[in-house]
Design brief:
Length: 118
C-alpha cells in the first residue's frame, strides 16, 4: 500500500475493473471470494433477493465490481460482494432513473423470454 492519498476521481480510472477499495484515501486490494461455500451462498442470496427486489420494484441490485463512493474527505469507496440500492436513492436524476429502469426492464424481459418453460 502506497502512502499516496487518493481521491475518488483518481481512484476510479486507475482501478477500473479491478477488485480494489479506497479506504481513508489509500487503495487497498480486495480479496477474492473466500471459498466455494461463500460463492454458493452469495449466488443464492443474490438470486432470491434480486427476485424480490424486481417483483416489488424496490430498487437495484449490484454485484462485485460495482464500486460505491460512500464518503468524502477522506474518500471511501467500497466494492461489496452484493449491494441493494433503494429506488429513491438511485440514480440522483429523474432522466437517468428512467434510463436505468428501462435498461433493467429490457434485461429482465430478455432473461424471462429465454427462461425454460416448466
Amino acid at each position: 500500500m502506497s502512502s499516496e492519498v487518493l481521491f475518488a476521481e483518481q481512484f476510479f480510472p486507475r482501478y477500473e475493473g479491478e477488485r480494489w477499495e479506497l479506504l481513508h484515501g489509500q487503495a487497498v486490494p480486495r480479496p477474492a471470494v473466500a471459498d466455494r461455500a461463500h460463492g454458493i451462498a452469495l449466488n443464492l442470496v443474490a438470486f432470491h433477493l434480486g427476485q424480490h427486489v424486481l417483483a416489488y420494484n424496490l430498487g437495484f441490485m449490484f454485484s462485485g465490481g460495482s464500486k460505491f463512493l460512500l464518503r468524502r474527505t477522506p474518500d471511501l469507496v467500497r466494492d461489496p460482494d452484493l449491494a441493494f440500492v433503494r429506488m429513491r436513492a438511485w440514480p440522483p436524476t429523474k432522466a437517468s432513473a428512467t434510463a436505468t429502469f428501462h435498461l433493467i426492464w429490457r434485461l429482465r424481459w430478455s432473461l424471462l423470454k429465454k427462461a425454460p418453460k416448466t
